[in-house]
């Protein structure tokens, strides 16, 4: 068997992660809205958990953050839900999409942020290690995976251009 044939495979669902926060005074900036840095920390935590679950190791690092879009403000007393899942897997890296919602008292969720993180699994010497392949099971996952491939290509292009 070749190395590729030996790779484990995991579904998107297997590593999906959801984190919930009640926004309190200590989370607010001077303008009375959720401090962007607090949300960025939570996003990185969710991306890390998703990547750890997929890679089956606690050793993952954030390699890149793309397209962090703040679509709406978040205020004190609101419930914030972050939902993360793997959209693409390379040999050692994973793209993790994290959608952030404000959850209304009736349970309806409204998107307030979307972010894409590139996470890399590493060994104890911080050298990249191979991760399981991604099993795509739904049309939505297929669409996210195709979009992730386009983002991967754009990242490569930016690196080649010095970004």
Automatic annotation (TrEMBL):
InterPro entries: Cytosol_ACT, HOTDOG_ACOT, HotDog_dom_sf, Thioestr_dom. GO terms for molecular function: long-chain fatty acyl-CoA hydrolase activity. Its EC number is 3.1.2.-. It comes from the Bacteria. GO terms for cellular component: cytosol. Keywords: Hydrolase. GO terms for biological process: acyl-CoA metabolic process. It holds the Pfam family 4HBT. It is an enzyme of class 3 (hydrolase). The keyword Coiled coil does not apply. Residues 13-125 form the HotDog ACOT-type domain. Belongs to the acyl coenzyme A hydrolase family. PANTHER family: ACYL COENZYME A THIOESTER HYDROLASE, PROTEIN VDLD. This is Putative acyl-CoA thioester hydrolase. It comes from Blautia luti.
């Amino acid at each position: 068997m070749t190395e590729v044939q030996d790779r484990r495979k995991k579904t998107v669902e297997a590593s999906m992660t959801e984190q919930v926060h009640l926004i309190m005074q200590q989370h607010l900036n001077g303008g009375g809205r959720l401090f962007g840095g607090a949300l960025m920390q939570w996003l990185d935590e969710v991306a890390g958990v998703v990547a750890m679950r997929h890679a089956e190791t606690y050793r993952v690092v954030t390699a890149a953050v793309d397209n962090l879009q703040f679509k709406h403000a978040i205020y004190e007393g609101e419930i914030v839900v972050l939902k993360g899942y793997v959209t693409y897997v390379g040999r050692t890296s994973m793209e993790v999409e994290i959608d952030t919602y404000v959850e209304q008292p009736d349970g309806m969720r409204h998107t307030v942020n979307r972010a894409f993180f590139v996470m890399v699994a590493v060994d104890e010497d911080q050298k990249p290690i191979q991760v399981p392949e991604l099993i795509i099971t739904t049309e939505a996952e297929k669409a996210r995976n195709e979009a992730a491939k386009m983002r991967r290509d754009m990242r490569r292009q930016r690196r080649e251009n010095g970004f």
